[in-house]
Structures are given as C-alpha cells and as structure tokens.
Design a protein that fits this description.
The protein is of the alpha+beta class and about 210 residues long. It has helices at about 10-15, 20-25, 35-40, 90-95, 125-130, 155-160, 175-185, 190-205; strands at about 45-50, 55-60, 70, 75-80, 100-105, 110-120, 140-150. It has two domains: about 20-160, Electron Transport, Fmn-binding Protein, Chain A (Pnp Oxidase, Chain A), CATH 2.30.110; about 170-205, no CATH class. The chain has eight helices and seven strands.
C-alpha cells in the first residue's frame, strides 16, 4: 500500500474533515444526564472496549433491558455473567482502567457512547443485587463515567441493522463447531459441538 497517501498528523486530518458540527460537541457531557439514563435503561446490549498490555478487546454484553444499572449520574454497574472464562476485558482493566461502552437498543438507530474508568468488584451486596434465579454474577464492573454522548443514526441506517429483511440466516455461515474443528485440527468442535450448543448455552446463561 502506498505510504504517500497516509494521514500522519492532526493538522492533515483537520484539513481533510473540517471542524466538527456544533451539535456533535453540544451533546457531550461528563455525567449520565436524565435523558441519557433513559437510553441505558432501555438497552439490552452493550459493547465493552478495553485496552491492556496485550492489546485491545471489544466484548459483547447483553441481558434484559436495563441490565447495566445506574448507580448515580457518574456511575454504571455492569454484572459479568458466565462466559468462556477468557476474561480478556477483565485482565485489560487490571492493567488499564479506561473503558468505552456502546449501548444498542433494538429498533433505535442512535447509540449511546460512554467513556470512563472501571474497577472489578466482588462486594457480596453488589453481587446479590444482580442475582438471577439465585445465581449472582462472578463480578460487577463499577464504571466511573467521564464522558457521555449519543451517536447519530447514520451508521445503523447504512447497515439497515434492524431491517428483518436484511437479516442473515445463521446457517448461511460456518457453524461454531465447523470453525473450531478446522482451527484445532479436529481436537475440539465438530457436529456434536453444534448439536449440544443450544442446551449448553441455555444452561450457562446465568
């Protein structure tokens, strides 16, 4: 790839894009404004971005609407449910507390962006607050909010993300078992992995 067409400094970037529109600045605040809190309470999904010694990570987190609780206008509480135990995000937070959250609400093209710093809590009272069926999360991320703003609808509109007619059938793509078998030379994965997946996933949701 030619290197003489690569942007290398902020001056060149500003010359290319120009000044931000006033609304893009006015929408950013340092706390969870009551109007932004409504988006948090409605969201059943959030992408969690972290940075650590070994690189970057973006992890999907989801549950019922409002599963990310609002502690106060400067604090979010995100329960960590059972997963694959890679704990990439949590390991990153131990090294670098900075996090970014992107909240998505089905049917709504605007998203909510939150940046802040997180710590991993195992406070028994906090864990009990997020019990489901008597099962508490392993830990809870306590996020100290630093900036909050909504992202305009263009990206999701271009993607037609919520248009059911554009949805892709899962069977149109390689199955998890197929991928695992190919990458592990048959040591894990395969047809049995795919057959047992629905029951395995349902059992380990909480």
């Amino acid at each position: 790839m030619p290197t003489d067409h690569v942007i290398r400094d902020e001056a060149a970037l500003a010359a290319l894009y120009g000044a931000p529109v006033p609304a893009s600045i006015a929408k950013e605040v340092d706390h969870l404004h009551p109007l932004y809190q409504e988006f948090v309470r409605a969201a059943p999904f959030v992408a969690l971005a972290t940075s650590g010694r070994d690189g970057l990570d973006v992890s999907p987190r989801g549950d019922g609407p409002g599963f990310v609780a609002i502690g106060d206008p400067h604090t979010l509480l995100l329960p960590d449910r059972p997963g694959n135990n890679r704990i990439d995000s949590l390991r990153n937070i131990l090294a670098d507390s900075r996090v970014a959250l992107l909240f998505l609400i089905p049917g709504v093209n605007e998203t909510l962006r939150v940046n802040g710093r997180a710590e991993i809590s195992v406070d028994p009272d906090l864990l009990a607050r997020f019990e489901v069926g008597g099962k508490p999360p392993r830990s809870v991320l306590v996020v100290r909010v630093e900036t909050v703003f909504f992202q305009c609808a263009r990206a999701l509109m271009r993607a037609s993300l919520w248009d059911a007619s554009r949805h892709v059938a899962r069977t149109a793509l390689p199955s998890n078992g197929t991928i695992l078998a190919a990458l592990s030379a048959g040591r894990v994965g395969g047809e049995e992995y795919d057959r047992s997946a629905p029951a395995r996933l349902a059992k380990g949701l909480y």
